[in-house]
Amino acid sequence: METVKFFFSLFIVGFATEQGGLSADVIKKAFNATEEEFLRLVKRSLPVRPQIASVGSCCLVGAISNDVLYVANLGDSRAVLGRKASGDKENTVVAERLSTDHNVGVEEVRKEVEELHPDDSHIVVYTRGVWRIKGIIQVSRSIGDVYLKKPEFYRDPIFQQFGNPVPLKRPVITAEPSILIRKLKPQDQFLIFASDGLWEQLSDEAAVNIVFKNPRAGIAKRLVRAALQEVAKKREMRYSDIKKIEKGIRRHFHDDITVIVIYLDKHQGSSRNKRTKQNAMGCTVAPVDIYSFNADGGDEDLLQTIT
């Protein structure tokens, strides 16, 4: 959701500047401020767009400051690190999951939600082939979805005209992010940030191996293609047939798939830089450190997106 991305990018840079750098506290404040700003947008828009009260978004954030990686998320988009294996397996790569899937399809998350609502035996129900909170939503954390967080919205006559109200004693989902902080290591090779549409089709290990074994050019598109090939196989269809299906109808076959791959090497050295420019079309390399005040380097250290 473009609105969420816009709000969050403003808030995280602002709070990091105020507090002299990035931290878990800065990230939490940015998430909270984004949620509050979206809530204000919902209140303003409700009379003319009552359905906005049921609009929500997962949120996945990655940032690097002083060679420390911060990953924060709400929902079931996922960040996975590819790092070189040690010992006798130096030519292989290991997948390390960096985010938490806030999806009640995961037993641990389902139990967490049930423990928060001991007086509601139907807080999580199995319907339409998956576990859902109140039979509606799979994720337990998000930006937005205010009708599942604020009782005043489901009670609002305007919203009740739009859809069936959900009686709430308390919020059934939250906007509290999970945050991982990790020192970057020399063996860390790349990061994959992707929506659940990719991870429903590919395991962490499969995705990491695809990135590791293939050229950088168009690597995110290669991951999307691999996921769609899995969809086609499950449906006993050809990949070309899946591609022909209109976007609105395609949602019945697979969830949306968004992928970003970031390589963590900085490509120092002129001859190596030259090779990088030739082979990095369609990928993102050398993430910029915009949060620490002593970040080294000039233009070569900027976040570089080549399309």
Please give a structural write-up.
Residues 267-283 and 286-307 have low confidence and may be disordered. The protein is α+β, with helices and mostly antiparallel strands and 307 residues long. It is built from 11 helices and 13 strands. 36% of the residues lie in helices and 20% in strands. The chain starts with a helix and ends with a strand. Helix 1 (2-19) packs across helix 2 (24-45). The chain is globular.
Descriptive key words:
307 residues; alpha+beta; 6-stranded mixed beta sheet; 3-stranded antiparallel beta sheet; 11 helices; globular
Quick gist of this model?
The protein contains eleven helices and 13 strands. The chain is of the alpha+beta class. Strand 6 and strand 7 form a beta hairpin.
Enumerate the strands of the largest sheet in spatial order, edge to edge or round the barrel: 5-4-10-11-12-13
Number of strands: 13
Provide the residue-averaged pLDDT. 82
- Give the quaternary arrangement of the chains: single chain
> In whole angstroms, how far apart are the ends?
21 Å
What is the ordering of alpha helices and beta strands?
HHEEEEEHEEEHHEEHHHHHEHEE
The biggest beta sheet reads:
6 strands, mixed
